[in-house]
From TrEMBL:
Signal peptide: none annotated. This is Glucose-1-phosphate cytidylyltransferase. The keyword Cell cycle does not apply. The keyword Ribosomal protein does not apply. PANTHER family: GLUCOSE-1-PHOSPHATE CYTIDYLYLTRANSFERASE-RELATED (PTHR47183), TRANSFERASE (PTHR47183:SF3). It comes from the Bacteria. InterPro entries: G1P_cyt_trans-like, Nucleotide-diphossugar_trans. Keywords: Nucleotidyltransferase, Transferase. The lineage of its organism: Bacteria, Bacillati, Actinomycetota, Actinomycetes, Propionibacteriales. One of its GO terms (molecular function) is nucleotidyltransferase activity.
Length: 266
């Protein structure tokens, strides 16, 4: 299945200074978070990507045009570097379509503008380019394709450590509860969408804010609860947490690292 990954966000909360890179190009280890998201999908056999570009789109194009396999793969060098033999490969089987969809375009409109590249696919995957998970995408896809729903989203518990304050008419606090203790779920992205999504997504609209409520009213939208790993990279604090996990070798989202590469097994 094709995978649409939205890459046009400014990522203002991620910046400590002047930076022209969009949020999906912020790195975890030696690779952008976008690369980690794409590797996740490739692990499940989804290697055809469509990237709706916006702010900083040139940096996304430049990164893949000058992609260096040796950064994240073992290799054998001979003849003083004139000959390189890769022992593993990241993206050799990937097909990536880069589409300029405008600087301030909504997510829904970005999706509409890449519709021609989805051809007549009955279903496709979509995601923000800055959220990581270990969700079983193969099982999710199988479930959606055999159901009568039009779209699904990954539903996850709140990740922030804020507290919900309970108080009466006199403003005296009667209780404090962590948001993670409440029966509350948030949109975690990782969408599975059928082509009928375009019947309820109109020009200039948002996917989640406009199209999804229409599907919900029609009982055509399903939440897929996930209690496992899920982490956004919206802030420097969240990026630091992901960097720490990467540095320690505990990378729950890196499902591909738990399998033997075909090239390495030769």
């Amino acid at each position: 299945m094709k995978v649409v990954i939205f890459c046009g966000g400014h990522g203002l909360r991620m910046r400590s200074g002047v930076d022209s890179a969009p949020k999906p190009m912020m790195t975890i280890g030696d690779r952008p978070v976008l690369w980690h998201v794409m590797r996740y999908y490739a692990h499940f056999g989804h290697t055809e990507f469509i990237l709706p570009l916006g702010f900083g789109g040139a940096s996304v194009k430049e990164y893949f045009l000058r992609y260096e396999e040796t950064v994240s793969n073992d290799f054998v060098m001979t003849k003083g570097g004139q000959q390189i033999e890769l022992l593993e490969s990241d993206i050799s089987e990937w097909k990536i379509t880069f589409v300029d969809t405008g600087i301030d375009t909504s997510i829904g409109e970005r999706l509409r503008r890449v519709r021609p590249y989805l051809e007549d696919d009955d279903a496709f995957l979509a995601n923000y380019g800055d959220v990581l998970t270990d969700a079983p995408m193969d099982k999710i896809v199988d479930h959606v394709l055999t159901s009568d729903i039009t779209a699904s989203l990954l539903a996850v518990p709140p990740q922030d450590s804020f507290h919900v304050v309970e108080f009466g008419t006199d403003s005296r606090v009667t209780g404090l509860r962590s948001a993670t203790d409440l029966n509350v779920w948030i949109n975690g992205g990782y969408f599975v969408l059928k082509k009928e999504i375009f019947d309820v997504l109109h020009e200039g609209e948002d996917l989640v804010g406009d199209a999804f409520p229409r599907l919900a009213a029609m009982s055509k939208l399903e939440a897929i609860p996930h209690h496992g790993f899920w982490a956004p990279m919206d802030t420097l604090k969240e990026r630091s947490m992901l960097e720490d996990l990467h540095r320690s070798g505990k990378k729950p989202w890196a499902l591909w690292s738990r399998q033997t590469s075909p090239m390495a097994a030769v």
